[in-house]
Amino acid sequence: EFAVAVSFGVFTTAFLSLFLLPAIFSLLKDPSELHLAKAKDGALTLFLGNFSLYIDKFKYIFILTFAVIVLITIKLLPNLDIGSDYYKYFPKNDPVIDELKYVSGMTGGNMWYNLTLEVPQNKGGFFGTQDGLVFLSNIENELRDNIYVYDVVSIVTYLKKMNVVLNNQYEVPQRVAVINLFKRIFSKMITDENKMFKEVKLMENDYNKVTFVIRIFDKNNNQPLAEKDFPLFMDSIKDTVSQIEHYGFKTKLWGWGLVASTISGIVLNDQFITLIISFLLVFTVTCIFFKSIYYGLVVLVPLITAICTNYLFLVILNIPLDLTTIMVSSVAIGVGVDDSIHFLIQYRQQIKLFPNDHRKVLYNTFMITGRPIVLTSVSIVAGLLVLLFASFVPITYFGLLVSLSLIGALIGTLIFLPALLSIINGFFSHRNNKCYKG
């Protein structure tokens, strides 16, 4: 929905720029000589024109800087925090957070794992015997003692509660008659398709398979366990699971908790696929427009700079990659590619006029496109920085990261891209001169 809305907005803006703006301009007075002079020879325009000469002079240093940024980003990517911590989405003193923490502390939250045990073939019906039920009770008690477990529900939970009513003891009954009574009640519950038994199936009717429903919780901080910490729970029950399997039982961990614990991988996978598709689309469109694979490749330099800027600040500022910040890269690519394409259009025109003077090509390109590119980027960033005042933290992160990414795209367009073009042009010019002399 976000992608569709943004795409529609961009299309609408392009349509209005092509038709509405010219109509408005036709009703306005022509720009004054002072305004024209400021646009053509103003301080910003002249600064950018002169700056292009330094780019040509120190092009190798700039490209080396670009390579270092890419390598540092790759190096820091494993430190990227992934997952949604909803308690950090609001200000610390927000009443919503206090209320959520209170409710979660009283109920243990709503994140569950299911651990299913299945008996070996030589122990058919084992979970229906007193020894089997005691074995399950011991497993349940061990799970309850886990620092990341708030509560456990299993078939023995109901059995021990029934024994409290009958014998005032919260344990597996010693009398076989009580166990048989419970088994009759349990069979009735399965027949009536009780919701708990229908969805989770705490125990199969043949007593060969049983399921523990485990509610996970961060007991240390008295709040639900964050998604990024789900692996901590998985590690904490490894010994319990190994012990169960040691006795020949089959185990299976499943449920919504396991699905949620894989969200990090899903987010990373979606991010990777999105970036690949975005780069391929930009490359394809640029190749078609310029009729050149060369321009299709170099246009990616500012986009890579924008992506690296985004990830670097995600790590530096310890901002998690979640369902909001994952959209930043695609937005940065979509908006940042404008600058590089405008720059390349003018660059190609200038190189046709001055094929043997690359410094002149860069100077004229900067004089014509530098000021519009800077002003456009600054205006977009200024508009996005308003989001920093949002009370909902993900919106603040979104505005900050998109702004930083666009600044990265601006740096890539006005520094790294012309430096690369200067190196490539110098290489081919030297090669052509060498061939000509030969």
Could you tell me how far the N terminus lies from the C terminus, measured between alpha carbons in angstroms?
A: 60 Å
Multimeric status of the protein: single chain
The percent range for helix content is 55-70%
SS elements, strand count: 4
Strand order in the largest sheet: 2-3-1-4
Low-pLDDT segments = 430-438
- N-to-C order of helices and strands: HHHHHEHEHHHEHHEHHHHHHH
| Major beta-sheet overview | 4 strands, antiparallel
| Strand fraction | 5-15%
Helix/strand-derived category reads: mainly alpha
Shape: elongated
If you average the pLDDT, what whole number results?
84
Task: Tell me the Rg in angstroms.
Answer: 32 Å
* Number of DSSP helical runs: 18
Account of the protein in words:
The protein has helices at residues 2-27, 33-41, 43-57, 59-76, 95-107, 130-144, 155-167, 176-191, 195-199, 230-236, 238-246, 256-261, 263-290, 293-298, 300-316, 328-353, 358-384, 393-437, and strands at 112-118, 149-153, 209-216, 250-254. α15 packs antiparallel against α18 (393-437). It contains 18 helices and 4 strands. It has 438 residues and is mainly alpha-helical. 69% of the residues lie in helices and 6% in strands. Residues 430-438 have low confidence and may be disordered. The radius of gyration is 32 Å and the shape is elongated.
